[in-house]
Design brief:
Low-confidence stretches: 164-175
Strand order of the largest sheet: 4-7-6
Radius of gyration: 37 Å
Distance between the termini: 146 Å
Number of helices: 6
Order of helices and strands: HHEEHEHEHEHEE
Mean pLDDT: 80
Helix content: 25-40%
Strand content: 15-25%
Largest sheet: 3 strands, mixed
CATH architecture of one domain: 3-Layer(bab) Sandwich
Shape: rod-shaped
CATH topology of one domain: Phage tail protein beta-alpha-beta fold
CATH class of one domain: Alpha Beta
Length: 175
């Protein structure tokens, strides 16, 4: 019996040591540094939220919602209309959040041009590209983001309206 008593005492001491070893002394955490709390998330951090069982939705706005000129449009103009470039520009900008600037002597020549048949179907394309395509390479697209206004100015390399460069036709004189 004394051996059993010694064995039992040994097991109780071993058990007490094991429990004491598992217990740790808690050190109070230092107050969180306010600079660490106010820091921005890392560059590549994209917040997501689980929307369904297998769907994660990014909680950031799309590029086209931040820059309205990047929105994708797809427009079919009726071929029975006799549409000018100015009418087409106004129609394209109708629901875009932008408006066409007022007609001036400079851009009036552009707005009065007839719309080519190739431009009756526009898209799917980025709004900025559609506007530049309708105006053509002789015009520069300028935007006023504060007023959400779109305007066109003649490009530096284009000839002023009404000044045509003479085309020379090589002709031989028959004698």
């Amino acid at each position: 019996m004394p051996q059993l008593k010694n064995c039992l005492i040994f097991l109780l001491l071993l058990n007490a040591l094991m429990l004491a070893g598992c217990r740790s002394i808690e050190i109070p955490a230092a107050a969180p540094d306010l600079e660490q709390i106010a820091t921005q998330p890392p560059e590549h951090f994209v917040p997501v939220q689980r929307y369904d069982r297998y769907t994660l939705v990014e909680l950031t706005p799309e590029a086209a919602k931040q820059n309205l000129l990047l929105q994708i449009i797809d427009i079919d103009l009726p071929s029975t209309w006799s549409v000018s470039v100015g009418d087409a520009l106004r129609y394209v900008l109708l629901r875009s959040g932008y408006q066409l600037c007022d007609s001036t002597p400079e851009n009036n020549a552009l707005f009065a041009l007839p719309l080519p048949a190739a431009h009756l179907k526009l898209g799917p394309m980025v709004l900025r590209d559609v506007l530049q395509m309708l105006a053509g390479p002789a015009w520069l697209l300028q935007t006023d983001e504060r007023l959400r206004r779109v305007c066109f100015l003649p490009s530096a390399g284009s000839a002023p309206a009404g000044n045509f460069l003479p085309t020379t036709v090589a002709s031989e004189t028959i004698q």
